[in-house]
Amino acid sequence: MNWERIISSPRDARSLERAKAMSELVDDITMKDFQARYPGISLKPIVALVAAYLEQDTIASVLSAIPNEISGLGVSTLVIVDGPGDATEEIATSHGAYVCAFPFNRGHGVALKIGYQIACSFGAGYIVTLDADGQNDPAEMPGLLEPILRDSADLVIASRRLGVDKTTNRLRKAGVYVFATIINALTRQHLTDTSNGFRAMRADVVRNLRLEQEQYQTAELLIAAARSGFRITERPTVWHPRAAGHSKKGNDILFGLRYARVIARTWFREL
Predict the structure, then answer these.
(1) In the chain, what are the domain boundaries?
(2) CA spacing 20 to 30 A to 71: which of 14, 26, 113, 186?
């Protein structure tokens, strides 16, 4: 749903109420469909959560690289297919992942939110989110989880600035620095990469946060977690170029403006 178009209409309050009700109905139907697919489901302690939209060319290699076990704990792979249009759902299913599929595209943030709900509802203690486009290496998952498993952190962000960024987009690289500076100033953190969606966390983190963003959820999650007192740290990552396809989040300028808007809205909401 595009809330801003609804809010600008003459009948703002009623339109917004109906849109939210419709969104909740779609979430409920999607969750019921998931439970019908997997009756009696019980997830392993660690859930690798992948939100995917039109990623049929890359998702197979990502899923194949996700480990079955980390530090003696089993790993379940959960793929949220954010709308139809290609063979992403079929490929994820064939690779043994649990698959939850939206009937139409809802946005990356919405997909992650229902993924968190599923993980928390069916037994996961830890969640690792990673992209379906091949930019994150699943082999790094143990390193992200390590501070959490030894109880020195609740949320761990992968940092391309602490590691290696193999991409060549200078504007995006500058944006990583700028957004980290802004979010650190707002939250009194000392992070280097606050716009990275490759992260590990205790399930309790998302269970206790208010998450509303439909698309750019990384900033919202980080600011809300910091304001709630969760312990946040980073681990270096190797950031790879997208293996195929293109970003669904718009061009660099549009992405930056929308991301900045999420930072502002979340900060004022959490005051």
Answers:
(1) 1-36, 38-270
(2) 113
